[in-house]
Amino acid sequence: MTFHRLLLPVLLALAPALQAQPHAPIDRAAVVARHAVRNTGLNPESALTVGNGDFAVTVDVTGLQSLERIYYDGGLPLETRNTWSWHSFPNPKGLRFEDTLAPVPFHGRQILYPIQQNTPAGRYYRENPQPMPLGQFQFTLYGEVLRSEDIAGVNQTLDLWTGIVTSKLLVRGQPLEVTTAAHGSAAVLAVQARSPLIASGELQVRVRFPYAYRTSIAHKPPFIWEQPERHRSTLTQVAAGHARIAREADGTRYDTELRWSTPAELVSASTPQLAAPHDYRLRATRGDTLAFTAAFADAEHPAIDETVDSTLASSKQAWRDYWTKGGMVDLSAATDPRAKEVERRTIQSLYLMRVNYGGSFPPAETGLQHLSWFGKHNSEVYVFHAAQFYQWGHVDLLEKGLAWYLGQLPKGIAQAKSEGFDGVRWPKMSGLDGRPTPGAINPYIIWNQPNPIYLAELVYRAKPTKETLQRYGELVAESAKFLASFAHRDPATGVYHLGPPLKNVSESTSVELVRNPTFEVAFWYYGLQVAQQWRERQGLAPDAKWADVIKNLAPLPQQDGRYLEIEGIRNLFGPGKRGAPSSMLLALGYLPATDKIDIETARRTFHAVHEQRGVDGGWVSWQMGQGALTAARLGEPDRAVAILGNTRAAAHFMPSGYSRRPRDPEGAVAYLPTNAAYLMAMGLMAGGWDAAPQGVAAPGFPKDGAWNVRAEGLLPLP
Q1: Which one of 86, 316, 498, 558 is most buried, by most CB atoms within 10 A?
Q2: Cis peptide bond prior to 129, omega within 30° of 0
Q3: In the record, which residues are listed under signal peptide (predicted)?
Q4: Which stretch of DSSP H or E encloses residue 552?
């Protein structure tokens, strides 16, 4: 491998970003400060989350989690979560995962898929394991939890630059000021509260522990408080300024280490109404201040000894590094009236993605904000969550998540072998253990399979070294082996087909009817091409089987000069039709142009989808990013910004940056694929892509004088 060939990806990555650089650097602190979240009243849609990717806490206007029911019912739940504490309910009947399997015909043979979702075993293994809820922190007044009528004069701010929440309010007319933060890298919460009511002993901090989530509710399950006998909270260590509470539920164990630096004592509540022995109170013994940390630990994650001051300093440093070392956009000079909201959505999404997805295990689609899909990793949409880290200059966070994939390689290889395939088969939905989750849809999803190739390629673009090739070479090769093995060759024609049985992106068509969906075929083609490039970089000859699949993969299905979503499912467009699927647009948008796709056919398809959906194209949720990616690559920046600036109700971003999933607005209330896809589109529009017009800054934005975009530190997509 020559030096110049090694250097080429670096030059490709840096060129558009350098072209977009103004002479003076962006005042990043000013950009971020413009979008601090400020609450002047009680709004359940404006709960605030602090965290670091592996640990997160969501708080209400009190700076703690005092108003649990109001926020759960009306908006964002108040939870304390990490990525590594998982729990399983007892299995007294000895249900086996094998009992979820059923034979599925697959081109002349049978594959055992875990599709028996509604059997006892299917229900058990869908719900288990699930993340373990950690402690809840509330203020009590006169022994009772604060109520909304106790509160007035709210003035609360989440400083995105530091990750610190400052809450000022009146409690029964008395001032209360609370500072809340999470450690920059560890599972540590820091709280400092000051009030005359603390000095009088009337205001205390309540720490209590639920048993588990009520996982019979798949999305936004509430806590189980009413079964105290099923778990244990044991005060195992008490000393001056320190207490340890050992938690155990059905074999899951962790410790909560409480440390306080102000005169205080921890006492256990003893009345049945307060759910003792899982209920504790921290009360001041002198002075008007309670300052404490809560660190969560288990055998593999020891607690670290942190004070409030050191935790606040850690939060400030971690967020300063994040904001200063990655990419940034500044739309303050843009005169288009949509620019302010587009910038807000971008900056707040950048904050939320580090909080929820910057950790060592990729969580479910609601991140660490609240539980959904039983907390399990949904590997198909993870690619949006991870790709934006590369674009915005945080490749380290992309690699942090990819490390989980590296650890799951042996299991995935064994899974593929058990089904009669080569390579590695990635689970569509899994917990920390990597085991596939039963479901009527899960085993049929395939667009997750090329994702590790795509993401490893992004790492290589940022770090084109032998070390990168060595670290991810097996990941890429085994993923490609599966792609080539899964594609079915028609012996009569030599053409390779995908499916049936399949579920494509939209999941709306019977598995027996899904054959050669446009995006999946395009992704198979791109993934195998990239895998061949990796072989070349490693000094290996092209793989003959991969080459044969690339050459003979089925064409992208189309009708009347427009791409279909699925081969054979025709007449998507026409007079009198309303609505249209859009997954075929991912073939040019999320994916770059290849010789598998015709640009003008993609353009006609995009226009047909946009127009058939209504005046604004109906772009909401994660399809906002999807549509903007396609529009930008097609050279239609006016439509790209119109999509990102959509203000219809279903495209609403809450004050703290979260958005509801339109299909499940009361369940998935913090649907992070929206934020991730949005950032992916913004990163491409401001930072470019390989085929973007050369020498043009922010190539995905209109050049009409109304979009003066300043960008720096962004890396282009392929």
Answers
A1: 498
A2: yes
A3: 1-20
A4: helix 544-552
**Residues near 684 by beta carbon (within 8 Å), at least 6 away in sequence:** 391, 629, 632, 633, 700, 716, 717
Count the Cβ atoms, other than its own, within 10 Å of residue 561.
Answer: 12
For 96-150, how does the pLDDT look when each residue is reduced to its tens digit (9 = 90+)? Answer: 999 999 999 999 999 999 999 999 999 999 999 999 999 999 999 999 999 999 9
- Buried/exposed 219-232: b ≥16 CB within 10 Å, e otherwise: bbbbbbbeebeebe
Per-residue burial over 199-208, b if 16 or more Cβ lie within 10 Å, else e, is eeebbbbbbb
Torsion of CA 69, 60, 207, 667, to 10 degrees: 50
β-partners of residue 330 are 710
Which of 286, 228, 298 lies closest to 257, judged by CA?
298
DSSP state of 593: P
Q: According to the model, what pLDDT value does residue 218 have?
A: 87
484-498 pLDDT, tens digit per residue, is 999 999 999 999 999
Write the DSSP assignment of 477-491 as a string of letters.
HHHHHHHHHHSEE-T
Q: Quick one: which of 164, 163, 160 has its CA closest to 177?
A: 164
Lowest mean pLDDT segment, chosen from 287-291, 411-415, 574-578, 705-709: 574-578
Beta-ladder partners of 37: 158
pLDDT in tens, 526-559: 999 999 999 999 999 999 999 999 999 999 999 9
Calculate the alpha carbon distances from 316 to 205, 238, 322, 355, 368 in Å.
25, 30, 10, 14, 20
Q: What is the DSSP letter of 717?
A: B
Looking at residue 11, what is its pLDDT? 46
Question: Within a 10 A sphere around the Cβ of 523, how many other Cβ atoms?
Answer: 28
User: What is the rounded average pLDDT of the residues 168-174?
Assistant: 98
* Neighbouring C-beta atoms of residue 565, cutoff 10 Å: 24
* Residue type at position 566: I
φ, ψ of residue 469 to 5 degrees: the values are -60, -40
CB neighbour class for 320 (10 Å; exposed up to 12, middle 13-18, buried from 19): middle
pLDDT at 23: 67
Cα–Cα distance for residue pair 675/653, rounded to 1 Å: 9
What was the pLDDT predicted at 513? 96
Distances, alpha carbon 323 to alpha carbons 38, 347, 354, in Å: 20, 10, 11
